[in-house]
Write a structure and sequence with these properties.
Structural class: mainly alpha
Strand order of the largest sheet: 1-2
Order of helices and strands: HHHHHHHHHHHHHHEEH
Shape: elongated
Radius of gyration: 21 Å
Number of strands: 2
Distance between the termini: 35 Å
Helix content: 55-70%
Oligomer: single chain
Number of helices: 15
C-alpha cells in the first residue's frame, strides 16, 4: 500500500539519526538496509511515496548522514536518469527540483562534475517550461554551489538564454535571482555582461518582469560595492544584508534598518 511506504519514508530520518548515534553497535546498518530503500523509492510509481522519499533524502543530506560514495554512486545516477531528455515529464520535474535543492548540500566537485552538465541541459529544455522555470528560480543557488569559474564558463550563457525566454515567468525568475548570480561573478563580467542583461530585464515588455527587476536593482548595484566599505554581505542563506556598525551593536536600541534582508536569491516565482 502506498500509504505504508509513505509512512516508512517519514520514519527513515529519525531511524538513521539513531543508527548514527549508535554506530559502534550498528556500523553498517544504514548503508546496507536504509539507503537502498530511499534510493528505490525515488522512482516509486506513487507520487506521494516519491515525494516522501525526496524529503527524506534532503533531511539525510542536511544531517550529513549520507556517505559521499553513496551520493555519487547511488543517488546522482538515479537523478540523472530521471532527468534525462526521454524521461517521463512528471519524473523529470521532480528530479530537477531535487537536484537544485541538493546542490547546496554537496561538495563543489560533486556538483560540478556530476550535476552541473545536466542542469545546463535542463536550462534549455524546450519541452517543459516547468523544468526551465525551476532552473531559473534556483540559478543563484547553483552558481553559489559551483563557484566563479564554472559560473562564468558554463552558467552565464545559460542565464542569458533564460533571461530572454519566451515565457515571462522565466524572465521574472531570473530578475529575482539576479543579485545572487552577480555576486558569484567577477567585477568585469558584472560590468560587461550582466549590466546590459539587467537593463534588458528592467526594460522588458512584461510589467511583472520589470517590477521584479526594479526590486532587484538595489541588491544588484550593491554587488559592485566593496563589502568592507559598504557594510554589505551575503549571508549563508543567500540573502543580502547590512552589517551593523560597532556603534549600533553597542547601542541598547534596536534599529531594524541596521540588519535588514534586502533580497532573497531563491525568491518564489509567480
Amino acid at each position: 500500500e502506498p500509504t505504508v511506504r509513505t509512512e516508512l519514508m517519514e520514519q527513515i530520518p529519525p531511524i538513521a539519526i539513531f543508527l548514527q548515534e549508535s554506530r559502534p553497535k550498528f556500523p553498517t546498518a544504514f548503508f546496507e538496509y536504509l539507503m537502498p530503500i530511499v534510493v528505490r523509492y525515488l522512482t516509486d510509481v506513487n507520487n506521494q511515496v516519491r515525494k516522501a522519499g525526496q524529503e527524506a533524502l534532503l533531511i539525510l543530506l542536511e544531517q550529513d548522514l549520507v556517505a559521499q560514495s553513496d551520493i555519487e554512486n547511488k543517488v546522482c545516477p538515479i537523478l540523472l536518469d530521471l532527468s534525462a531528455p526521454d524521461s517521463d515529464d512528471e519524473y523529470k520535474v521532480e528530479a530537477v527540483n531535487i537536484i537544485c535543492k541538493m546542490a547546496s548540500m554537496l561538495s563543489r566537485t560533486t556538483v560540478e562534475h556530476l550535476l552541473l552538465p545536466r542542469f545546463c541541459e535542463l536550462c534549455s529544455d524546450g519541452k517543459l517550461f516547468q523544468v526551465r522555470k525551476i532552473c531559473a528560480a534556483n540559478f543563484g543557488d547553483i552558481c553559489n554551489a559551483v563557484g566563479q569559474e564554472a559560473t562564468e564558463r558554463l552558467l552565464i550563457p545559460k542565464f542569458f538564454e533564460l533571461c530572454s525566454d519566451s515565457v515571462w515567468g522565466m524572465r521574472k525568475a531570473c530578475a529575482e535571482c539576479f543579485m545572487a548570480v552577480s555576486y558569484t561573478t567577477s567585477p568585469e563580467v558584472r560590468r560587461s555582461k550582466l549590466s546590459p542583461l539587467f537593463i534588458s530585464l528592467i526594460s522588458d515588455t512584461c510589467r511583472w518582469v520589470r517590477q521584479a527587476a526594479f526590486q532587484s536593482l538595489g541588491p544588484f548595484i550593491s554587488t559592485f560595492a566593496n563589502p568592507s566599505s559598504a557594510g554589505l554581505y551575503i549571508r549563508e542563506d543567500g540573502t543580502l544584508s547590512i552589517r551593523p556598525s560597532a556603534q549600533d551593536v553597542n547601542s541598547n536600541s534596536c534599529q531594524p534598518s541596521n540588519n535588514i534582508t534586502l533580497m532573497s536569491s531563491n525568491a518564489n516565482t509567480a
